[in-house]
Amino acid sequence: MSTPIAAIVLAAGKGTRMKSDLHKVLHPLAGKPMLLHLIDSVAGLSPARTVVVVGAGREQVERAVAPHGIATAHQAEQLGTGHAVAQAQDALAGFAGDVLVLYGDVPLVGADTMRRMLDRLHGPDAPATVVLGFRPADPGAYGRVIVAPGSDRIDRMVEYKDATDAERAATLCNSGLMAVRSADLFALLARVGNDNAAGEYYLPDVVMLAAADGRTSAVIETDAAEVTGVNSRGELAALEDVWQRARRARAMADGATLTAPDTVWFAHDTQLGRDVTVGPNVVFGPKVTVADGATIHAFSHLEGATVGAGAEVGPYARLRPGAVLGENSKVGNFVEMKKAILGAGAKANHLSYIGDADVGAGANIGAGTITCNYDGFLKYRTTIGAGAFVGSNSALVAPVAIGDGAIVAAGSVVTRDVAADALALVRPAQVEKPGWAARFRDAMRAKKAAKA
């Protein structure tokens, strides 16, 4: 039987450098709160329990994790990472297994890395703790991990503030993430003191306490990008760039063409099929799926949309939540869709708003067409049948239905249903007055001359 897993996620910090009313760990990365990126990775391990330690702004964090069935523990005073982890003890009462200690502002740690930490915890030498280390380009003020030569056994760990010059010269740094058995964790934490430069209770001290008991600890390493933390908006933007670059590379490796990769922005859940082509300056918001062979032209924005196989979007198109494009359909420049379905082969090539509508297969929506779906109080749907043709600059006032094969003449304001294969012509009869324009110009020239 596999050992049960629990995760403790620290999210009690004030995040003052973000200068925001939104809690730091709830700031979005690729359209999803940082904390939920981490929670999703943890979920890949099927944990028995997950506890988020909250503090300042706890109500926001509690609301964010409640739908996921995650417990919270409150750290009323910010007395260090060791103290923060200790606050989860009650929430893990009765739990026996392995515990991962993670950080809500270190969102990109993957399930595979977490599994490596747990596997090392169960290695033949049975280390008391496993620390996740990394080697940043600039070690700066990170805590250092000092290992025995030629091994992964930790000799000692030291916070930068308390390190000697020789210890600061080490390049292996402590990410703060740790794996430890529940039977050891809280017993060790109870012995942690705060006799250090900051007067705080440090989680890494459990490593040295275990060593004093004659037990070793181990470190495994990961790439610095995976354990990048976020403390400011600038750091969040830099991490967003890291995430986007990796996602673009994966999209191209999976068979999509990005003609100007650095200008395409993905959401955390964007799905692209094979042979999809994405032009420059395209933005994918959350919940977008693009099927095989579709083309997203430049400067288009998609969110909550489904694009069918072989369909075309843009340039300069906006697909809002609920937009569905059928196979080989087309939405062209300056067209906006919302809660609307465009059937297979249907087209809205330019300058249109298609909202709360069902457009049948092969229908053609002329330039400047608007589905008038809102009366100031309620929304209504428009139905356009298969093969229908709606002329340019038409307004379809919902609720209204245009039958299969019907034609709506350009410039019409349609307020009643149109039967299949009928012509709807809703505009005044054209009146022509011979010679009127010439007489008008003569009269105006004379009027202007009289004022000179």
Number of separate domains? 2
Question: How many helices does DSSP assign?
Answer: 9
Gross morphology? elongated
Overall pLDDT score:
96
- End-to-end C-alpha gap: 102 Å
CATH level-four homologous superfamily name of the largest domain: Spore Coat Polysaccharide Biosynthesis Protein SpsA, Chain A
Which fold name is given in CATH as the topology of the largest domain?
Spore Coat Polysaccharide Biosynthesis Protein SpsA, Chain A
- Residue share in helix: 10-25%
Give a verbal description of the structure.
This protein is an alpha/beta fold. It folds into two domains: 5-227, Spore Coat Polysaccharide Biosynthesis Protein SpsA, Chain A (Alpha-Beta Complex); 253-424, Hexapeptide repeat proteins (UDP N-Acetylglucosamine Acyltransferase, domain 1), CATH 2.160.10.10. The chain is built from nine helices and 33 strands. It has a 19-stranded parallel sheet that branches. Strands 5-4-1-6-10-7-11 form a seven-stranded mixed sheet, sandwiched between helices. The mean pLDDT is 96.
Kindly summarize this structure in a few lines.
By secondary structure, the protein is α/β, with parallel strands linked by helices. The N and C termini lie far apart (102 Å).
Topology:
Blueprint: E1 5-11, E2 28-29, E3 32-33, H1 34-43, E4 49-54, H2 58-65, E5 71-74, H3 81-86, E6 98-103, H4 111-121, E7 129-134, E8 144-147, E9 154-158, H5 165-168, E10 173-181, H6 182-189, H7 205-212, E11 218-221, H8 233-253, E12 257-258, E13 271-272, E14 277-278, E15 283-284, E16 289-290, E17 295-296, E18 301-302, E19 306-307, E20 312-313, E21 318-319, E22 324-325, E23 330-342, E24 347-359, E25 364-365, E26 370-372, E27 382-384, E28 389-390, E29 395-397, E30 400-402, E31 407-408, E32 413-414, E33 423-424, H9 436-450
Parallel strand pairs: 1-4, 1-6, 4-5, 7-11, 12-14, 13-16, 14-17, 15-18, 16-19, 17-20, 18-21, 19-22, 20-23, 21-23, 22-23, 23-24, 24-25, 24-27, 25-28, 26-29, 27-30, 28-31, 29-32, 31-33
Antiparallel strand pairs: 2-3, 6-10, 7-10, 8-9
